[in-house]
Write a structure and sequence with these properties.
The chain is mainly α. The chain has helices at about 1-95, 95-130, 140-155, 160-165, 170-175, 185-200, 205-210, 215-225, 230, 235-245.
Length: about 250
């Protein structure tokens, strides 16, 4: 009977131990499932982060390549601007109606002044009884000389433009400080000041011309100096010659 009781007690202990083991196994299973879900969640999060990282890396790579291309293009554009662009701008301007119309207007006024001074000198030569061919102003080849000079001017190259073209790769200050020989800095300062204030390209031509000083007097003085004392005294003798010319006609000059 006692053996039966001992056996019963052992049996109860075994049942209690089995129940405890079942609880532990169930707890382990729950923990394993939780860990499995957590690992799965971390794996999915890692995949998402890796995908985002790959996208970000690819975007950075494309941005870097784009930046390299932009730098290369900017360098190439800068090189063209320095080595060829300035030459092209100057060449186009010097052979354009925009420049030649303004130059032609001054040239026409200079011709009118020359004709006037020549007429005055011709009257003086006639009154003094000198032959036309002996006058220092008589130059029948002047038309051909002028034509040749114009052709040379149209094909003229400028050392300053060549110096500008050699500034690629040098500090910007080198180009900023580079000036052509005999530069009229006062007029340039007025023109550049006008451009910086106006910034209206449709009116740049008028604004630039209006900002320049009156050069008609300077042209007259230079032309008078070329013509000698006759040119300088032309205005003074004009009235006297006019009164004398009423009674006589000039011979062909």
């Amino acid at each position: 009977m006692r053996e039966y009781e001992d056996f019963s007690k052992k049996k109860d202990k075994m049942k209690s131990s089995m129940a405890s083991m079942r609880k532990e196994i169930s707890s382990f299973a729950e923990k394993e499932e939780a860990w499995s879900k957590k690992v799965e969640s971390l794996s999915r999060q890692h995949e998402i982060e890796m995908t985002d990282f790959k996208k970000s890396f690819e975007a950075d790579r494309l941005k870097k390549e784009s930046l390299k291309a932009s730098v290369s293009r900017a360098t190439s554009d800068n090189q063209w601007l320095i080595e060829q662009g300035f030459q092209q701008v100057v060449t186009y301007l010097l052979h354009s109606a925009e420049f030649n119309s303004a130059l032609g207007e001054v040239y026409t006024k200079l011709l009118n002044l020359g004709k006037h001074q020549g007429l005055v000198a011709g009257y003086k030569l006639r009154e003094a009884g000198h032959a036309l061919e002996k006058s220092p102003l008589f130059r029948p080849d002047s038309s051909d000389v002028l034509k040749s000079s114009v052709e040379q001017l149209e094909r003229l190259t400028y050392p300053y433009v060549h110096q500008v073209s050699s500034c690629f790769g040098k500090p910007l200050s080198v180009l900023q400080d580079l000036k052509p020989e005999g530069l009229n800095e006062k007029v340039c300062a007025e023109v550049l000041g006008s451009l910086s204030k106006k910034r209206s390209f449709s009116r740049d031509s008028d604004d630039t011309l209006s900002s320049l000083p009156d050069v008609s007097k300077d042209v007259g003085l230079e032309a008078s100096a070329v013509g000698g004392d006759d040119g300088a005294k032309a205005k003074k003798s004009k009235k006297a010659k006019k009164s004398k010319a009423k009674g006589s006609k000039p011979s062909a000059i």
